[in-house]
């Protein structure tokens, strides 16, 4: 059943397959190899403009947030709040995050029974003014390093102003 000739054919088939595999790898490496050894720097073939150079150059233009807030539209802010609804509520109950009704000009880390991060507990003597609330909403981890809030932030100042104008209408 399994004689020497059959065994030789099977072994030859495996060796042939291995040879094809190694030659294919060598050919692919020679086609797509960029030269140099490991750890050697290569010139980038193309670049994607992310605006990082602009941001790292001069400081960003200072925005008059009070003027933005004066022109803000609470109705637009209500639609921006949809990004927040997954974690925050406006009915006085807590979700994943604390409730936000009456948050504007309220003390930070104010809601009883909510487990705030150490970063926000350290700021509990301060209050959420519209301007610092805007900075927090723009970049939560940048404003309060160590915060439990995993939201990336709202970058557009107009959207933040609309959202804060809406939150001002929710009362406490």
UniProtKB/TrEMBL annotation:
Keywords noted in UniProt: Cell membrane, Electron transport, Heme, Iron, Membrane, Metal-binding, Transmembrane, Transmembrane helix, Transport
Coiled-coil ranges per UniProt: none
Stored Pfam families: Cytochrom_C
Topology in membrane: Single-pass membrane protein
GO CC terms in record: plasma membrane
InterPro entries noted in UniProt: Cyt_c-like_dom (IPR009056), Cyt_c-like_dom_sf (IPR036909), Cyt_c_1A/1B (IPR002327)
All copies of domain Cytochrome c, residue ranges: 72-171
Subcellular location: Cell membrane
GO MF annotations, alphabetized: electron transfer activity; heme binding; metal ion binding
Record's protein name: Cytochrome c family protein
Organism the protein comes from: Qingshengfaniella alkalisoli
Taxonomic classification: Bacteria, Pseudomonadati, Pseudomonadota, Alphaproteobacteria, Rhodobacterales
């Amino acid at each position: 059943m399994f004689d020497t000739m059959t065994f030789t054919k099977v072994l030859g088939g495996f060796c042939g397959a291995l040879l094809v595999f190694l030659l294919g790898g060598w050919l692919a490496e020679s086609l797509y190899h960029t030269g140099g050894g490991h750890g050697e720097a290569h010139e980038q073939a193309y670049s994607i403009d992310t605006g990082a150079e602009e941001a790292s150059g001069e400081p960003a233009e200072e925005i008059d947030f009070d003027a933005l807030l004066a022109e803000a539209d609470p109705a637009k802010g209500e639609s921006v709040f949809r990004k927040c609804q997954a974690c925050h509520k406006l009915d006085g109950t807590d979700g994943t995050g604390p409730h936000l009704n009456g948050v504007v000009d309220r003390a930070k880390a104010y809601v009883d029974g909510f487990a705030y991060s150490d970063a926000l507990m350290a700021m509990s003597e301060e209050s959420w003014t519209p301007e610092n609330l805007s900075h927090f909403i723009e970049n939560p981890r940048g404003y309060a390093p160590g915060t439990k809030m995993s939201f990336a932030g709202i970058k557009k100042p107009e959207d933040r102003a609309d959202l804060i104008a809406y939150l001002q209408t929710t009362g406490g």
